[in-house]
């Protein structure tokens, strides 16, 4: 799982670029912030591993011990089960051909909850449960803001789907995700999104209970609402994932500060086009992703902000364009380009940590609490889970 750096890769000056870097000090700080908040709110924290997709990062969550987690792929569920995690929510709508893998995990003693938002799905989950001779825990997805999937709390399909699952001993609870909170640009908008997320999930659970169906789990969460919620009465668990790394979208929402970003990508300057005001690097969208999540925010950060190798922001320098293997850096607001010769290594802070992390097989790990000059020492290399 964890690999130590080879003698040929002692600092961030050594590996071939581009490569992803995690600052474990910042990640631990981010993790503790939300863990403490969940404790104050009196709910279980079920971290979402979809951003990090790493057993090593998961080990930071609970002092090296396993804990309840959320995943976005069955490949994650299987890898985390192999790593000893036995309480897993697979938070993507289920389809029939994936159920054999879920059942295989259940037979291993791993609780894997599936997610659904239709009577059709409830029927095939209940049928598969009967054929397998064991309950398949299922949560009904609730739509709190029109972001993606889910049933509204007043949808006639909600109690009908609930009854099908209940009668098959599969009904585990309800789950909602305030995806539109990523467009809540003020603290008050985020607070209201968190309140609506809670109210919607609790209303759905109460409707099922009123129809005689116990609802054990009421699950809510997104990174913005998890940090904005003031009252989670009626909720049993809180989910979030991006917070382990954070990114420029979250910084643009003031959920975190730029200095909290734990993920970056090291690139190398490979050319200059002074006639266009460009510095060219070897880190294009294959290293950073095509995500432009800050484009709709008050401050567009292009494809990412630029720091030196030690992690200090270079003022007004932005990655403004990307082709497959080339990144273009330009100066903001007509300022002069810094003098960065060919061979200079830089770090790019990403718009969307999930998308950028997905471009890489693993992370080179540094610890900014142990010093960063002139180039941070690589403490370890952590692998990522890939595939579906």
Automatic annotation (TrEMBL):
<dbReference type="InterPro" id="IPR042208">
    <property type="entry name" value="D-ser_dehydrat-like_sf"/>
</dbReference>
<feature type="domain" description="D-serine dehydratase-like">
    <location>
        <begin position="262"/>
        <end position="367"/>
    </location>
</feature>
<dbReference type="InterPro" id="IPR051466">
    <property type="entry name" value="D-amino_acid_metab_enzyme"/>
</dbReference>
<dbReference type="InterPro" id="IPR026956">
    <property type="entry name" value="D-ser_dehydrat-like_dom"/>
</dbReference>
<protein>
    <submittedName>
        <fullName>D-serine deaminase, pyridoxal phosphate-dependent</fullName>
    </submittedName>
</protein>
<dbReference type="Pfam" id="PF14031">
    <property type="entry name" value="D-ser_dehydrat"/>
</dbReference>
<dbReference type="GO" id="GO:0036088">
    <property type="term" value="P:D-serine catabolic process"/>
</dbReference>
<dbReference type="InterPro" id="IPR001608">
    <property type="entry name" value="Ala_racemase_N"/>
</dbReference>
<dbReference type="Pfam" id="PF01168">
    <property type="entry name" value="Ala_racemase_N"/>
</dbReference>
<dbReference type="GO" id="GO:0008721">
    <property type="term" value="F:D-serine ammonia-lyase activity"/>
</dbReference>
<dbReference type="InterPro" id="IPR029066">
    <property type="entry name" value="PLP-binding_barrel"/>
</dbReference>
<comment type="similarity">
    <text>Belongs to the DSD1 family.</text>
</comment>
<keyword id="KW-0456">Lyase</keyword>
């Amino acid at each position: 799982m964890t690999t130590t750096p080879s003698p040929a890769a002692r600092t961030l000056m050594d590996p071939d670029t581009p490569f992803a870097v995690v600052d474990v000090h910042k990640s631990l700080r981010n993790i503790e912030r939300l863990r403490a908040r969940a404790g104050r709110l009196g709910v279980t924290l079920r971290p979402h591993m979809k951003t990090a997709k790493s057993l090593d990062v998961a080990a930071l969550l609970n002092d090296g011990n396993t804990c309840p987690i959320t995943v976005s792929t069955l490949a994650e569920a299987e890898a985390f089960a192999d790593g000893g995690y036995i309480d897993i929510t697979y938070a993507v709508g289920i389809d029939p051909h994936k159920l054999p893998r879920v059942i295989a995990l259940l037979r291993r003693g791993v609780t894997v909850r599936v997610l659904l938002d239709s009577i059709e799905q409830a029927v095939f989950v209940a049928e598969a449960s009967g054929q397998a001779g064991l309950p398949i825990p299922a949560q009904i997805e609730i739509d709190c803001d029109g972001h993606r999937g889910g049933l509204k709390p007043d949808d006639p399909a909600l109690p009908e789907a609930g009854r099908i699952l209940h009668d098959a001993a599969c009904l585990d609870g309800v789950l909602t995700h305030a995806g539109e909170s990523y467009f809540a640009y003020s603290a008050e908008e985020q607070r209201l999104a968190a309140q609506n997320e809670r109210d919607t999930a609790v209303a759905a659970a109460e409707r099922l209970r009123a129809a005689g169906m116990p609802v054990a789990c009421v699950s809510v969460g997104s990174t913005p609402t998890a940090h904005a919620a003031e009252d989670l009465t009626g909720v049993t668990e809180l989910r979030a994932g991006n917070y382990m790394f954070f990114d420029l979208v979250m910084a643009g929402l003031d959920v975190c500060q730029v200095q909290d970003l734990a993920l970056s990508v090291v690139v190398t300057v490979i050319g200059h086009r002074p006639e266009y005001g460009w510095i060219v690097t070897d880190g294009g969208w294959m290293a950073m992703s095509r995500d432009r999540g800050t484009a709709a925010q008050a401050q567009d950060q292009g494809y990412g902000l630029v720091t030196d190798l030690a992690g200090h922001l270079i003022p007004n320098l932005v990655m403004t364009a990307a082709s497959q293997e080339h990144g273009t850096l330009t100066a903001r607001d007509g300022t002069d380009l810094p003098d960065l010769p060919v061979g200079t290594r830089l770090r790019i802070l990403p718009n969307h940590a999930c998308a950028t992390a997905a471009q890489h097989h693993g992370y080179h790990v540094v610890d900014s609490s142990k010093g960063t000059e002139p180039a941070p020492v690589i403490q370890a290399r952590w692998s990522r889970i890939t595939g579906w």
